[in-house]
Design brief:
Layout lengths: L3 H10 L10 H12 L4 H9 L14 H5 L5 H4 L7 H30 L12 E4 L3 E4 L7 E3 L3 E6 L7 E5 L3 E5 L7 E2 L9 E6 L7 E5 L10 E6 L7 E9 L3 E6 L7 E5 L2 E5 L7 E5 L2 E6 L8 E5 L2 E5 L7 E2 L10 E9 L2 E11 L2 E8 L2 E5 L15 E4 L6 E5 L3 E7 L2 E6 L12 E7 L2 E9 L2 E5 L7 E2 L9 E7 L2 E9 L4 E4 L6 E4 L6 E3 L7 E3 L7 E3 L7 E2 L16 E4 L2 E5 L2 E5 L7 E4 L8 E8 L2 E6 L4 E6 L3 E5 L8 E7 L2 E9 L7 E4 L7 E2 L9 E6 L7 E5 L3 E4 L7 E2 L8 E8 L4 E7 L3 E5 L2
Antiparallel strand pairs: 1-58, 2-3, 4-5, 5-6, 6-7, 8-9, 9-10, 10-11, 12-13, 13-14, 14-15, 16-17, 17-18, 18-19, 20-21, 21-22, 22-23, 24-25, 25-26, 26-27, 28-29, 29-30, 30-31, 32-33, 33-34, 34-35, 36-37, 37-38, 38-39, 40-41, 41-42, 42-43, 44-45, 45-46, 46-47, 48-49, 49-50, 50-51, 52-53, 53-54, ...
Length: 759
């Protein structure tokens, strides 16, 4: 979302922010996330999402993706297999998660057997939240309680107080009391990315979930999950054919509950045996499904990348639906729903060309309906829904960046913005809307900020985010004097601060990027948002001031460029290095000599005069101060994305790098300042490695954070062992070791922060 901070930057620099690229910031984040792991993953994005060539970043895309023609409707509807790169990575991640789960179970068994001799020790890793982030950002004039991205919400058809939600990368959470309390239910499953949840309407004890969030984390798909106790416990019902495939929707046929339908990034699937086996019925990205209340043999409407289709034989075959005034241009997203009490009344909501389009069916006739003024479709691939009020034929809700309630009369829609409405606004970027089964005025909205409930059709809202641990923390920084002061950058929920409570402070808006603390004066801290941006605070984040960096950026960079702070030396890595030696502007621009499209991806200070930089192509550079800034390129450990650099506190000649692009060694060590490297990958799973830290009291002890779990070596990387007891199977993206308090700290994507005391 465009934040209040961005508006202040525009005013401060007297420049206007450039028009957001097609797909918005979310698409640039997706390219960044996938390219960091395997550039081939982005080939599938370009092949299925309408991305003009001008909107494709040079970083993170293969030559094939950069040159591909923008996707057409015909191309989008072609049969496709799951991308081989996505399937391979997802299988490796699921294997690593399963191995960690088995080790945890064995550890619990060992502790139980030893209980007679000594009390069982608590799990080493402990959650520190956020359990809530008050004062989160909206587009309105108010602040709201936020927590993280929610992709799916399901309400028990027999008990409206019983809720299940699917977090983008934080698993399934259950509430028995209308969201007053929450518990995680899938922390040890092979994937915590959830795209869809569905109760069996004939027996709500049976619940199904589709792993792999179609909106973003599709590559994390590990199959369909099933619960037989209302969502309290889960098991994998079917992994094939969904490894590396993302879910958008999942529906249980109310007339034949053994029959399930799935809308996925790979097509429309059907199961006839309660989710055990699945068959592909129509290929091509499928976004949404609406099944007639009398079952799929009566009618199924399905939204595909090449248009709206209908089936009258339970999804075995489909025919195209001709919608009037179908506009020109590529289809970015399509959603469909129907009125439950009048199922011949249906709605289709599309982002096509440069605008949003809505149609309403009454009987057999579709009519084009006017859409809300100012409807923003720029991120339709990411946030989009249509929801027909179950018992009101002329009322419909549509969601994009904002959400709207519409009253339809003929071809005219009268619209109310229900998510950005002055001092009664909620977080933007709408992903789903669900009705309470006993009262259609009660609605639940899921968005980038969490879950919100309205008892009056969106006129007012209550946040239900307390106790949900689903924040996506990208980066961490700490006060050297106490581990109980942390600062973290988060996805679309700003920069947040931990001071000992699981309720974290919201201290800056926007997309929170890398951050840092002046270790000589911890009151002075820095945070970034995205691209080349940085702010400074002299009171630990209570207030901020700009640092004169260019906006819009004049330098190419990653979406989240690396930031490093060492005393008064502050640096941010773009195509060139921007660095200051007095903590504020003016900035010195140091040319790094990197090829076009290659950027710094990791940075670490040996001291205030010496910086180490790792690049997206595996280069390692040393930059040092001798009255002027000098640079030298060291040998490269591997020609792949360097995700982190760590320096041994006891030996500045020894440092470590992690590699997040799979296909070879993933952790390397040098003992001679980068002249030669040792591959230290033996014993690690073949999955992306994101972060590395060295124990300052024992140089042989090192930890790495991976896309699943944390691992430890006690012998300089000759061997590794899982170090994840008590940790959910989430992405461990940043690690800190607090020297004074001997505390290891882990930031995860969509499961917040975790700590463990280290003896």
């Amino acid at each position: 979302m465009k934040s209040k901070i961005e508006a202040r930057i525009e005013r401060r620099t007297k420049r206007k922010k450039p028009k957001s690229p097609v797909g918005g910031k979310a698409l640039q984040r997706l390219f960044f996330y996938l390219g960091e792991r395997d550039p081939k993953l982005n080939d599938d994005v370009v092949a299925t999402i309408a991305v003009p060539k001008a909107a494709r970043p040079k970083f993170g895309l293969t030559k094939k993706a950069l040159r591909a023609k923008p996707v057409s409707a015909a191309k989008a509807g072609r049969p496709r297999r799951a991308a081989p790169a996505a399937k391979s990575l997802a299988a490796a991640l699921a294997k690593a998660a399963t191995a960690l789960t088995i080790r945890r179970r064995r550890a619990r068994t060992t502790r139980r057997r030893a209980r007679a001799a000594a009390p069982a020790a608590p799990p080493p890793w402990q959650a520190i939240g956020p359990s809530l982030i008050p004062h989160g950002q909206t587009y309105g004039s108010n602040d709201v309680d936020v927590i993280g991205r929610v992709a799916a919400i399901a309400v028990d058809p027999n008990d409206p107080k019983h809720l299940l939600l699917g977090a983008a990368g934080g698993g399934i959470w259950e509430s028995p009391d209308t969201g007053a309390t929450w518990k995680p239910r899938t922390d040890q499953m092979p994937s915590l990315a959830i795209g869809a949840i569905a109760f069996d309407p004939t027996n709500p004890k049976r619940v199904y979930a589709g792993s792999g969030e179609g909106n973003f984390y599709a590559n994390l798909g590990a199959g369909v999950y099933k619960s037989t106790d209302g969502g309290a416990t889960w098991a994998v019902s079917a992994s094939a054919p969904f490894v590396g495939v993302g879910f958008y929707d999942l529906v249980v046929d109310s007339q034949t509950p053994a029959v399930l339908y799935a809308a996925t990034t790979n097509g429309f699937y059907k199961s006839t045996n309660s989710g055990v086996a699945w068959s592909l019925k129509r290929a091509g990205r499928c976004w949404d499904i609406s099944v007639h209340p009398n079952g799929g043999l009566v009618e199924i409407l399905a939204a595909f990348a090449d248009g709206l289709f209908v089936s009258t034989n339970a999804g075995n075959t489909f025919a195209a639906v001709a919608l009037p005034s179908w506009p020109a241009g590529a289809l970015a997203r399509l959603a469909v729903d129907r009125v439950n009490t009048a199922p011949t009344v249906a709605y289709a909501f599309a982002a096509k060309g440069s605008a949003g389009h809505l149609w309403r069916r009454s009987g057999a006739v579709w009519t084009k309906i006017s859409t809300p003024p100012g409807l923003n479709i720029n991120q339709a691939w990411y946030d989009w829904y249509v929801a027909a009020t179950p018992s009101i034929q002329n009322q419909v809700y549509i969601g994009a960046i904002d959400g709207y309630r519409g009253t339809i009369s003929g071809s005219t829609g009268t619209w109310t913005n229900i998510t950005t409405q002055g001092n009664n606004s909620i977080h933007p970027d709408q992903h789903c809307l669900t009705f309470s089964p006993n009262n259609p005025q009660i609605i639940y909205a899921g968005n980038d900020g969490g879950i919100f409930r309205s008892a009056n059709s969106g006129a007012t809202w209550t946040a239900l985010n307390k106790g949900l641990g689903i924040t996506e923390i990208e980066y961490l920084a700490s006060d050297p004097n106490t581990w109980k002061w942390l600062m973290g950058g988060t996805q679309d929920n700003g920069t947040i601060r931990y001071t000992g409570s699981t309720v974290w402070d919201h201290i800056a808006d926007g997309d929170g990027g890398d951050c840092g603390v002046n270790q000589l004066n911890p009151n002075v801290v820095y945070h970034s948002y995205y691209s080349v941006s940085l702010e400074r605070s002299t009171n630990k984040g209570n207030t901020w001031s700009g640092l004169g960096l260019p906006w819009p950026p004049t330098l190419g960079s990653l979406f989240y460029p690396p930031v490093e702070v060492s005393g008064l030396t502050v640096a941010i890595g773009a195509a060139s290095l921007l660095v200051t030696r007095n903590g504020v502007q003016p900035w010195t621009t140091v040319s790094l000599g990197l090829p076009s499209g290659e950027y710094p991806s990791a940075m670490r200070a040996i001291d205030a005069n010496t910086l180490l930089i790792g690049s997206t192509a595996g280069r390692v550079l040393r930059v040092w101060w001798t009255g002027v800034w000098n640079k030298a390129q060291l040998t490269s450990p591997a020609p792949r994305y360097i995700s982190c650099v760590a320096v041994d506190p006891s030996n500045p000649q020894r440092f470590w790098v992690t590699i997040s692009q799979i296909g070879g060694g993933l952790v390397y060590r040098t003992d001679n300042a980068g002249s030669t490297w040792v591959n230290c990958t033996t014993g690690l799973p073949a999955i992306p490695m994101n972060s590395v830290v060295v124990d300052p009291a024992n140089f042989k002890r090192v930890w790495v954070g991976a896309d699943v779990g944390v691992y430890q070596t006690l012998d300089l990387g000759s061997s590794w062992a899982a170090f994840s007891n008590g940790l959910p199977n989430a992405m461990a993206v940043d690690l800190l070791f607090h020297k004074q308090d001997r505390m290891l700290i882990c930031a995860t994507r969509n499961r917040g922060g975790w700590v463990m005391p280290v003896p």
